Structures are given as C-alpha cells and as structure tokens.
Amino acid sequence: MQRGLAWWGPSPAAQLGLILATIGLVWWFGRNTLDTMADAGINPGFAFLSRSANFEIGEAIIPYSSADTYGRAILVGLLNTVRVAVLGCILATLLGVALAVARLSGNLLLGGLVRWYVEIIRNTPLLLQLFFWTALTHAFPPPRQALSLFSSVYLSNRGIFVPGLIVESVPAGASFALVVVALVAAVGLAVLRRTGKVTAAGVIATALTLLVASGAGLLLVGATVRLELPTLSGFNIRGGYSLSPEFAALLIGLTVKFSAAISEIVRAGVESVDRGQWEAARALGLRNGQILRLIILPQALRVITPLITSSFLDLTKDSSLAVAIGYPDLVNIINTTANTTGQALEALAILIGVYLALNLSVSAVMNQYNRRVALRGAGRR
Amino acid sequence: MSARGRFFVRGLMANQARWRKGLFGTWLNSVVTIATVVLLAAIVPPFVRWAVLDATWVGTAADCKAGTGACWAFIGAKLNFILYAFYPPPLHWRPVLVTLMLGGLLLLTAHPRAWRAATLLLWVLVPIASWLLLAGTVVGPTVPSNQWGGIPITLLVAMVCFSLAIPIAILLALARQSSMGGLRTLAIVFIEVMRGTPMVAILYVAMLILPMMIPGGQLIDKLGRAMILITLFWSAYVAEVVRAGLQAIPAGQYEAARALGLGYWRIMRFVVLPQALRLVIPALVNLAIGFLLATSLLATIGVFDLLNAAKTAAIDPNWLGFYDEAYLVAASIYFAICVIGSRYSLWLEQRLRQPR
Amino acid sequence: MTIKSRRHSATSTTLLRVTTGALLALALVAAPAATQAGEDLDAIVARGVIKVGVGSQPGFFAPDENGVWKGFFIDFGRALAVTVFNDPEKVEFTSSSPQQRLPALQAGEFDILLSGVTQTISRSFQLGFHFGPTIFYDGQGLLVRKDIGVTSGADLDGATIGVQSGTTGELNIADFFRKNGKTFTPVTIEDTNEFLAALESGRVDAITQDASDLGIKQTQLANPEDYILLPERLSKEPLAPAIRHGDDRWLEIVNWTVWATIEAEELGITQANVDDFLTSEDPLVQRFLGTDTALGEAIGLDPKFAYNIIKAVGNYGEIFERNVGKDSIFKWDRGFNSLWTDGGLLYAPAWR
Question: How far is B127 from chain C (nearest CA, A)?
Fold first, then answer.
C-alpha cells in the first residue's frame, strides 16, 4: 500500500481526476463517433472482417483471391508490410555499414562522394525519393522488349525477374516435419550458444549439415527441385522469382534513405571509441581486423544499437508510404477496406494497433540484443 | 614575398601532401580512388549531358519529346504551379507575400539575439496574418483552403505545427519526468502511442475520424484538421528531446533552487527550463528539418504541398511525364532549406557551447 | 525513481487542476451529437455556398484555363445552387480522388458528391449514402492496347490490368475474372492521370473503368488509334449524386433539381425558348415554370426554381450535348441517356 502511494506521489486525488477526465474525454469522442456512424446507418463492429473482400491484390505471400475475406486481405497487407520492412532493415544495414566503411576508409575522394550521397538523401523527403524510384522502374521497357541478361534475368516495367528454385510435390507431412526440425534446431542451437557449449563456427556447421540433410530427405520422399527461368508467356514474363516495380521502388527507396542514416550512426559509433585504443591495441600486436572485432566493435555497438533500433522502427513506420506508390501494404489494404465497407474507425483502429504491436515487438527484440551487447561490454571492461 | 603569401603557399603544400596521402597513400587507397573516379565518370557526364547539353530550355512539350535531354521548358511553364499549386493565378502575390513573411520570420529567429518576447509575439501574429491573407478574409476575394498549395503550405504547416508542438511537448516532458505516477503514465502512454504510429495513419485519422469525433467537426476544413493532429503527433517527438535536456540538468540545481524557497513552477520557469531548452536547441533544429520533410506526407490525404504540386505538374495532360524535372526542382528546394538548416544547427551548437 | 521524486516532490498542482477542470467540463457538455433533420440544408444555407465533390476528367468535370469549372456533372452542381440560392455561382467544387471521395463525404467535407459515383446497395446501407436520380447510365469497359491482339475481355487471362482504387471498377473486374474462371494481376492506381500513363508505358495491358471515362481517356492518349475500347460491358454503372443520410429535404431538392432538367427536355423547354413558355396555357407548364405559384408555395421552394434552372444551365439534353455530346469534342450518342419517349431511361416523376 505504501509503495502504491509512493508511486502516486503528491496530490493523487487530482491525478485520479485527470485520468478520469481523460477517460471521459476519450469516451465522449467514442460516443460522438458512434452516434455519427449510427446516423449514417453504419453498424460499428468487426463483423466485416469475415465478409468476402471482392477485390484482388497485386502481390501476396500467402494464397489470396477476391473470394477471400477482408480479414485475410488485411493479413496479406500486413505480410507485405513485414516483408518490405524486414528486407529493408537488412539491406539498409548492409549498405549503411558499407557506406560508413567507405567514409572511414581515409580515401578523400570516396569519403567526399559518400558525404554528398548522405547529404542529398537525408535532406530530401522520402516520399519524393519513392516517387523518383517509381518513375525510374516504370521507365524500363514493357515485357516484350524487356532488357535481359543471359536470357535469365529480365528488367521490365512489370518488374525484375530472376531464375528461381522451385520445389514441387513435397508431401504435407514432410513440410510439417521440416518446420518442426528447423524450430527445434534453432532453439537448441541458440540455447547451446548462449550457454557457451558450442562455438559460432559449430553453430554454422550444424545448421549447414541440417540444411543439406533435410534437402536430401525431401528428395528421398519424392520432392523434385528444378531451376525455373523466367520466360515471356502470354502477356507477362512468368516463372522464377519476381519483384514488382512498386515493391522494388519501395525497397530501394527505404534502403537508400535509411542507409544514409545508418552510415552516420555507425560512423559516429566507431568514432566514439577513443583513437588511442587503436594505437594501444596495435602496440599489443593485434591485427587491424582483430582490433575492430575484439576492441572497437563491442564498444561502438553500445552506442550504435539504440540508435539503429530507432532507425529500424522509423523504417517500419515509413514503409506505410507504400500507399502513395501503389504497393499493397497494410495501409493500402486498410484504405480500400475502409472505402468499401465504410468502417473507417475499425479499419484505422486495426492499422494503429498493428503498427503499435510491430513497433513494440521490434523494440523488444532490439532491447534484448542491446542488453546483451551492453552486458558483454561491461563484462570485458 | 609577403608573410601572408608565404603562409598561403605553405598551406597549399600541406594541403597537397594531405591530398596525396588521402588519395594514393597505400596501394589499396589508390585502387579505391581509381574505382571511384571510374564510378564518377559513369554517372557525371551522362547527367551533365541530360541536364545541360541536351536539355530543352524553351519550347513546348512536343519540342521536349523530340529531344533527349531534360525539359526545362516544362519547369518554365509550370513553375508557378509547382510553387503555388491551384491558388488562383491573379492572386499569386498572396502566396508570394506569405512565403516571404514566413521565410523572414525564420531568418529573424535564427539569430540568438532575436530570442526575446517580441519575437515570440511575431510567431503568433505572422502565421495568423498568413492564414488570413491566404484565405482572403480581410481583403477579398476569399480563396477556400482546398485551393491553397505549394511552398506556402509546406512552410505554414511545418512552422505552425512545430511552434504549437513545443509548449505541449514541454508539458508532456515535465509530466513524464514528474514524480506523480498517474500523470507520468498518461504522458508515457500518449508519447509512446504517437511515436509508434506512422504519420500516414495520423493523417487518415485527421481526415476520416476527427470530423466524427467532435460535433461540428466538419466545420474545420481538412487542412486545419490535419494541422491539429500533426501538432499533437510532433509534440510527442519534441517531448522526448526536451526530456533529454531536462535529464542533463544536475540534481544539485533543483536542490539549490528549492533551498532558496522557490516553488515547482518557479524552479522550472527560471532555473531548469532555460538551461534545458538551451541545451536541446540544436537537436530541435534537426528535428524541425525532419518535420519539414515529413510535411510531404500531406500528399496522401490530397493536400497540395510542394511535393504534391510538383507531381501534379508532371501529370498535366499537356506536359505528361516530365517527372524527373519536377522532382529535381522540388528536391532542390527541400535540399536548400534543409542544408541551410543543418549548417545553422552546427553553427548554433558551437555558439551555444561557448561560455556566455 | 529516486531522482524523479527528489526533483519534483514539490510539484505544484495548479496546472494539473486547471487541466482536469477543463477536461471534466468538456466531458460534461457531452451532449450527444445527434443529427437533426434538415441539418445539412441548414448548414448550406447558413454557409451560403454548396460544397460539391467532383473528380477530374474533361467533359465531366475540369477547370478551364481561367480556373472556371466546366462539365456535365458541374452543370448539375450549378443547377443545385440555382434551386437553393437562385445563383449558379454559389457552389464550390473540390476535386477528390476516387479513393478519398466516399470517406470525405462521410466525414462531411462535401454536401454532395457529383463525381460519377455508382449507386450500389452496399453504398446505400453500409456507407450510409442516399442517391439522387441517376444522371448518367454507364457500364464498365476495358481499354486495351491493340498490339496484344485481344478482342474480348475473356481473352485477357493472365493479363496485368490497371484498376482505380476506390471505384466499383476494382470490384467488378475481380467478379468478372472470377465468373470466367480466369486470373489477372491488378495494379491499383489512385491518380486518374497516372492511371492513363500506366497504360501508355505498358506497365499494364489494359485499364478498366466506366466506359464513358475510358472513351474520354482514349482521346487523351498520344496515339489513340493504338488502343481499343472492348465492346463488352462488365457491369451496370448508374452514376448518381450521393449525399449523407439524415436530411430528407436536401435529398428531395437534389431529386427534383435533376428531374427538372429531364422534365424540361420532355416538355421541349430549352434555355433559349424558356421565356416563350411563360405565356403557355398548359397547366403542367404553368406549374413547372411557376407561373402558377400555388405548387411552389405549397412545397416551400421558389415557385420559379425550375425556370431559373433552365435559364441558367438548360435542360438535360442541352447539358449532355454541350459537355459530352454532339456539341463537344467527344461526340457521344445519348444511348441509354435519352428520354424514355426516345427509348432511353430518363423519366421524371409527375409535376403535380
């Protein structure tokens, strides 16, 4: 009880009043909204999620057709958002680190070039860059005149097409078993690595062995694997893997924009470590790679991680700009849903809820990592 | 040779040595330099050819389509549209005047010597005057806000929302730092929800939900509604910056102030906030630059800000498809404003670091 | 928490109290925001101008060089302004993309949508819209590139098709392919002009939209002869004025304004000869033009509102021919949009 009171601090009654007043205000907003909806003859609620959506979606990771429900359509949009956000985070980090290395390389020309790149990218709106990339992808020739490399990679205004590995006739049991094996292996290896029972090399070796073994297992139970080349058939190029122009534009735009921010973060992180440490480590006879890996990075990561976390969160949120260039992300689908059902309130509630959940989970994962980095740094000190 | 001349030559030679080392210091460095030169050679000449040598400077869309370079004739024809969008052409002096007023206010405020109460008053008066001028309330004819657009809208939204967000943000930051648990929780929930939501979603709420939430909400036009929610949205971000400033003030100052018998608000008003805000001004300038770029998202709810106006200019059926030129012009304007802003922020940081 | 409490234990609660009070006051005035009948019309009259949401398409709705809105739907907006204010200028047109127009009407941004909205049952019940009389009967078509060698929609199996988000076209095309057991890849585009650009650049094989729209769009393409509007119609597209539920009188004003233009055509009254009819002995004409004021007084409108409309914008036939028919660059036939007496679907209820 005493701790509870301590939490409230001075004037708990006034605070309670404020909280109640806020709830009252929210309640008042909600009631007005419901009244307005009732006047318009709209039934509030989420029943529409199980109704048939009746619109097609350009690209989907899971099977989807216009006969499916709004709920599934929204899931397709969510997965599209997650896909572009995850790939964007990975690629932006890779490019950002490469840019930081280029900037730190000491080469004046390259360093200057990267500085200009960063300045231009950071000081123009992301949406403008997305419009630019979209215009660029649309400027490629139509599929029949597509630019091709070795007749296997095609660039056209319908997208980028590359050869793909197609695995067919996998028995349902086998794919389930595969997922279980992968999960068990991942958890097991993580635990073993955490407790220091295996080395990093051991983890990689085990994973590779398992991968090869499961591949062989699949072939044994009758699965077939073939390499599929994209070819022009009918109206479009088909086969292999493809990136739609809108997806490509969004991915490139997010990668480029956030690589600039990340390169600055990495640079600042590395420069935050005192130069004297390089000299001291060199005096101890360590090689440059060793110094970077063992001494500089563990310290720099402590500065870098929280900043990169917020970059990742920003990237995830900014992927919502997809709506402006026609990539069917969550916002796009929510928009269409609100439009055809009239349930704008519910649709936007789903949108905001999902982004909050995405954000909180990304920061939870990164905080976990951050804690590890910080602890390790502290342990070594 | 004069002493000054000798100094110059020595500086040049030192520079030369620096460049030689920076470009060809090691064999790896030389390889990188050559590779960069090759890269530049692949990018720069075609760009110059497109932008300058092969460009069409005057003429019609047909002349441009016939050429292979950039179509600056398009910019010539549509520049007024890009800058002021659908604002009626005979009344263009109004957005010009508004742009000058807002820009002048920014320049005035830039100098620390102008940081006084009178300037604060200007920040209240100038945006109101701009709004009335654009609307034509005082001197007719009136122009509804759905016809406003271009650079005045970008500046107006960025400046008004940012300046209104600051006082809200200070209260939020104080609440988040407060020892009152209930108040703190409210502030945390508000800040985290705002920061976890994309701005696009906030704009949709302004467009679709806000009119339903408040009786008579549809009386506020779309731009006004968007500005209300953008202000609240930005205040969460500003609050986190202000909080960083508050955390940097040593606890001893509070204790000293309290020992003098000052109450909470006096401590904040005269001791803590002046120092904390001073610390975070450069960070606030950087945040403001980000916000200026973010105003381009207004395009998603159909407001014709600078970027949307540029895009719309390129989909005019008479000049269809000159996206690159339109985006280049818009990008240059954003770039110029933001680079000036970030240089200013660096200058300010140095200046503020000097002891007074 | 120790730092916090040390710092702020002397927290003053003045501001807290003020905020709480203000919020409580706000919550207490929480009178339900019930809409009263007549709210929309009252708001229009108080404001002195009708807010009309339109699209952007030459012929239907587009500003001319001087920024004056012109077009088929625009003229009906002006007719409404005549009915309410007896002034065709007391109307404010705002262009809204198909994706934003319906929520914007719901949100009260417009008093009426004249942007070629298709009347559908779900829009009536789910979105809460009332529709006035259909002012343009249309059907969804497909505009394709000739070089892909397609003669009917069924040949488009596997094609990439541009659809405009927020239109019934987005839903109809999905139905069409589902019905025929075929597939297609949609490319959803919001902006009308970009929609056209996608077809021109070959990003899509075909675009689908109301056939009238596509007819106009075809004329805007660089080489219109490279494209063909397929003859089949995928759907019925009755384009009608849309308003929010809740104001019956406003709905009736919309209804009878449209019907006045149709009735005038049936009676042979045009912008040019309307004054000659003022001396007509026909009791129907007298009621219609308000020379007999009894009807107008009974219904509470200006008895001469129909006269004013015809004087300002003309009858339905004149509006059609001037904007999209034989007096325009589009040269469309009246088709379904003829009077019922000519085998069309236009039919005004009785003026009595």
Answer: 24
Q: Which chain A residues in 304-323 lie under 8 Å from chain B, judged by CB atoms?
A: 313, 317-318, 320-321, 323
Q: Contact B335/A18, CB-based, under 8 Å?
A: no
Whether the bond between B317 and the residue before it is cis, its omega within 30 degrees of 0, is: no
* pLDDT tens, residue by residue, A253-276: 999 999 999 999 998 888 888 888
C10 touches chain B (CB under 8 A): yes
Domain of C198, in residue numbers: 140-237
Q: Can you give the residue ranges of every domain in chain B?
A: 3-53, 72-353
Q: pLDDT digits over A323-369, tens only? A: 888 899 999 999 888 888 888 889 999 999 999 998 888 777 777 77
Whether C81 contacts C112, CB under 8 Å: no
Structural domain including A273 reads 70-128+245-380
Indicate if C107 and C148 belong to the same structural domain.
no
**Residue C15's pLDDT band (boundaries 50, 70, 90)?**
low
Q: Do A15 and B311 touch (CB under 8 A)?
A: no
* Cβ-based contacts under 8 A for chains A and C: 158
Domain CATH code at residue C100: 3.40.190.10
Q: Say if residue C51 is in the same domain as residue C168.
A: no
Q: Is the domain of C252 the same as that of C333?
A: yes
Instruction: Sort out which chain B residues have CB atoms less than 8 A from C197's CB and list them.
Output: 315, 320-321
Chains B and C form CB pairs within 8 A to the count of 80
In which band, very low, low, confident or very high, does the pLDDT at C19 lie, cut at 50, 70 and 90? Answer: low
A89–chain B Cβ distance below 8 A for any pair = no
Q: How far apart are CA A253 and CA B181, in angstroms?
A: 42
**A2: distance to nearest CA of chain B, Å?**
13
Task: Please give the ipTM for the structure prediction.
Answer: 0.86
Q: What is the mean pLDDT of chain B?
A: 85
- pLDDT > 70? residue C11: no
> Which pLDDT score is estimated for B11?
62
> In terms of DSSP H, where are the helices of chain A?
2-8, 12-39, 70-104, 108-122, 126-138, 172-194, 200-220, 245-271, 275-283, 288-290, 297-318, 322-325, 330-341, 344-380
**CATH class for the domain made up of B72-353:** mainly alpha
Give me the pLDDT at residue C77, please: 96
